Amino acid sequence: DGAPFDCIKLEMGKSLKGNKTSRQKTEREQKINRERNEAAATWLEENGYNRTYSNRLKYKLWKECNQICPYSGDAISATGLFGEFPEFEIEHIQPYSRTLNDSFANLTLCRRDINGNKNNRTPFDFYSAQGDAAWEQAKARALSVFKSSKDYPKRYQKFKRFAAEKLDDDFISRQLNDMRYAAREGRKLLQQIVEKREHVQVLPGRLTSDLRHLWGLNSLLND
C-alpha cells in the first residue's frame, strides 16, 4: 500500500563489497565448490555413507590431502574417516578459538589423538615444543602431503598456513574492517526508505551460519 517499512534487518555477506572481477572470481569458485559437493555426495551414496554436510566436507579434505594425514603421515582409510568410530577428524590448522577462521583454507584432516594434543596451538607451537627436529620433520611431511594433490591448485597456500611460525592474527581485523564498510554504506541507503533511521539494523554475515550450526541443521542439508 506504499507505507514505509517498520524495520529492516540487514545481514551483511562477505562478498557484498567487491568489484566485478572479484565477484566473478567468487562465482567461479562457488561453481567449482558445487561440483565438488556433487562429486562428494555421489561417492558417499555409492559407498553407503550419509550425505551430510560434515561428510561432504571430510570427503573434499580427504581428496585434497591425497588420503594422507598431514600431521602424522598415516594413510586415511574410508572407514577411518567416515566409519562409526573414526580415527581421523576435521582440524583447524590455525586454531579457530584464536582466529575465528572457519574457512576451507584453514581446514584439513588430522589423526584424532594428535588433534586432541595439539588443542588450541598452531602446528608451529605444537611441534616446536617437541624440538627443532620435530618441527622440521612436520613441515616436510605436510609439504609432501599437500604437493601430492593434483585436484586443488590452492594446496600450497594451505601448506604455507601450516608452516607459518606467526599466527595470522590480522584475519579478524580484516574481516571486521570489510564488514564495517559494507554495513555503513548499506545502512545509509536503506535508511532512506524507513520512517526512523534507527529502524535499520545490521546483523553480522555469520549469524545465519552460526544459528544453523547451533540448531543442528547442517546435518539436514544433504542435497
Keywords:
10 helices, single chain, globular, mainly alpha, 52% helix
Q: How much is the radius of gyration in Å? A: 21 Å
The main sheet comes to: 2 strands, parallel
H/E series: EHHHEHEHHHHHEH
Helix content range: 40-55%
How many individual β-strands? 4
The termini sit apart by 39 Å
Strand order of the largest sheet: 1-4
Which percent range describes the beta-strand content? 5-15%
User: How much is the average pLDDT?
Assistant: 82
Q: Label the overall shape.
A: globular
Total of helices: 10
Oligomer: single chain
Structural class: mainly alpha
Q: What is this structure's SSE topology?
A:
Blueprint: E1 8-11, H1 20-46, H2 53-64, H3 78-82, E2 88-92, H4 96-99, E3 107-111, H5 112-118, H6 123-128, H7 132-147, H8 155-163, H9 170-190, E4 200-203, H10 207-214
